[in-house]
Specification:
This protein has 331 residues and is α/β, with parallel strands linked by helices. It has helices at 12-23, 38-48, 56-61, 77-87, 101-114, 129-139, 163-182, 267-270, 272-287, 297-312; strands at 3-8, 28-34, 51-52, 67-70, 91-93, 119-121, 146-154, 186-193, 206-212, 217-223, 231-238, 242-244, 252-255, 258-261, 319-320. Helix 1 links the parallel strand 1 and strand 2 (28-34). It is globular, with a radius of gyration of 20 Å. The two termini are 33 Å apart. The structure holds (2R,3S,4s,5R,6S)-2,3,4,5,6-pentahydroxycyclohexanone. (2R,3S,4s,5R,6S)-2,3,4,5,6-pentahydroxycyclohexanone binds at residues 155, 158, 169-170, 173, 267.
């Protein structure tokens, strides 16, 4: 029997997840789809052979739903994760786990109260083959001890209208992947704003400087109106060498005296394999009765705490990251 997934949110990410779960991922199907826009829910449901649900809580409670995927607006995540936990159903929640620290703390308490983990947070870069190679190189000691990390995170354009949203909606991926790559925690965050692009209605690009507890320094460029394409870069500088993400697979075209390759238009194209692997492992663990994979509720909490520190650092301070003690369940 396939794992029957209920998808909450039929926007860009929800529709993509529904497409993958119904047509690419093995051992899964999509049974119900809900969205604030009932027409959009109907459209996505029809495309994947599912039914549209009247509302998310009905979807979560449905006997036709074995697992829940949340891709609705950030502000709804806490309520729907809590409902999935109460129903005892595995849940993959797109980032952020919750946009505020208090919401994440409530979810930590709720999952601990259950006595078992059910939550995966959608930090899909952990499943990207290039990032996995980079982590393996670090683990194998190929570079010596890591010293610096250079990151760039560029979107073609973004509806976001503030540096705060660039931090909480985009840089949050770097916060999570730096912890995962380095097996380390973030100690402080600084944010620098310089000349802004004339194409941006906000401070864009911004530069963040993150200090890890080990002393490793990471700079993160976030440029959400880069215009030319969607591109993510990450290079680790170690004592004896450096390693960075290779150029994503794609055509290298030589024509009319030019050589070049395409650049992704958004994150779905650039991280398609990561999303595929993340969903496949999530479904497999559900089908096999194994604990949830990937980023946990703790990782989702830490990402939101760091993002809040970054937003606080917009006033020019170097802001320390203050975490509660890590519960035993997540060690
Ligand atoms: C978007 O919300 C995402 O989560 C993408 O993964 C990220 O690359 C993009 O910058 C965000 O706006």
């Amino acid at each position: 029997m396939p794992v029957r997934v209920g998808v909450i949110g039929a926007g860009v990410m929800g529709a993509e997840h529904a497409r993958l779960l119904s047509g690419v991922i093995s051992r899964s199907s999509v049974s119900l789809v809900s969205d604030v826009d009932s027409g959009r829910a109907e459209q996505v449901a029809a495309a994947v052979g599912a039914r549209a649900a009247d509302d998310p809580l009905t979807l979560i409670a449905s006997p036709d739903v074995d697992a829940v995927l949340i891709a609705s607006s950030d502000a709804t995540h806490e309520e729907f994760v809590l409902a999935a936990l109460a129903a005892g159903k595995p849940v993959l929640c797109e980032k952020p786990l919750a946009p505020d620290v208090a919401g994440c703390e409530r979810l930590l308490a709720a999952e601990q109260g259950l006595g078992r983990r059910l939550v995966t947070v959608g930090f899909m870069r952990r499943y990207d083959p290039a990032y996995q190679l980079l982590r393996a190189a670090l683990r194998d000691g190929e570079l010596g001890a890591p010293l610096l990390v250079h990151c760039a995170h560029r979107n073609v354009s973004s509806a976001n209208h503030s540096a705060a949203q660039s931090i909480s909606g985009s840089a949050v991926h770097e916060f999570d992947i730096l912890r995962w790559l380095l097996d380390d925690e973030i100690e402080t965050v600084e944010v620098h704003r310089g000349r802004r692009s004339g194409r941006a209605g906000c401070d864009d690009p911004i530069l963040l400087l993150v200090r890890m507890r080990s002393g490793v320094l990471a700079d993160i460029e976030v440029f959400v109106n880069a215009t030319y394409g969607y591109e993510v870069r990450c290079e680790v500088v170690g004592e004896t060498g450096t390693a960075g993400l290779g150029e994503p697979i794609g055509l290298l075209v030589r024509s009319t005296g030019q050589v070049g390759r395409g650049v992704a238009s958004d994150w779905r194209a650039r991280f398609l394999e990561a999303y595929r692997q993340e969903l496949q492992e999530w479904v497999d663990t559900i089908a096999d009765g194994a604990p949830p994979p990937g980023a946990s509720t703790w990782d989702g909490y830490v990402a939101t705490v760091v993002a809040q520190a970054g937003v606080d650092a917009l006033d020019g301070r170097r802001v320390p990251v203050a975490l509660v003690e890590k519960p035993q369940e997540y060690r």
